[in-house]
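pinging the channel bc i need a second pair of eyes. not urgent but kinda urgent?? the chain im working w is below, pasted from the shared doc
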Amino acid sequence: MKGLLHMALLAFGAFSTSLTHGQDANGTRDLSLSQALELALANAENLDAPRARIESARARLGAIGSLPAPELRLRHDDGRLSGESSQEYALRFRLNNPWETKAMREEGQVRTEVARIQLKLAERLLATEVKRLYFETLHRQGDATLAREISAVQATIRSARDTLVAAGQLTLPKALESRLDASETLAEATEAERAYERSASTLRAYLGLPERQSLKLVTPFSRPDANASAPALENLFGSDIWRFRPELISLELEGDAARARVRQAEVRRIPWFSFLQGSLEHDRRVLSDSDQWGVLLGIEIPLWGHKADLRVANAELQENFAIQRL
């Protein structure tokens, strides 16, 4: 008996929850500006790209410095006339330049920080866009309400004039004029309603709300503070104001990444070991066979090509400086 009662309570709870959700989806929802901002930030679709960019930068940073895959080398010489042959089996390991790897890690760390700052910038831009849409929707809702009221008044005037025309107390041109005014105000009301629906639909998309969810925006327009003084130009471009601007912080970090690329190009001019190879050679001769072990070490000597890389890196750095100044 207790089990049946427990199951009945669970079923009733599920039914109540589904009914509540159905009412939320179909009824009018009161929405403040702060609630709209919370919903926009919680909607994963709005910020999926910058968040994925952080994970991508972290993955690239983790891959820096990993050793390249080894290379298996096989050689076979067959002397058919002499009856001798030889085989060589070698395993070659590519070696990373430690100074270049260090500079690449520096760039990777900066790229990860840039991605994090760009997420903050995306959140700020999203909040700005949601605020704009919120008050635009509120404004267009007021326009639509006023246009409907004007259209209703004009329709009443038209009806009254049609009655006067029928009674012979008003000329037909006056009635036609009122009919034209009523048609124009009805068209204006329809267009105002459509503009409101477009704005509200865009706002619902940002907030992740159902398409047909009716919204009641409860945050009114705020009046500007008459006592607030306008910021001075020197305060807008002060020495520390950039620390609160994600887009400027991102530009400065991009400059750090460009400097790291310059260091990569510089250290590639240093001679360094390119590979290490261990090999086993087996000689099959007429009288006897022999095995020989060997080690081969390659050194990369940067005679050309690296000056061009350095010029490219410096050009990118100067481009970043120009963007920062702009």
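so Strands lie at 28-31, 71-79, 84-94, 214-217, 272-284, 289-300. and Residues 1-23 have pLDDT under 50 and may be disordered. — does that match what u expected or am i reading it wrong
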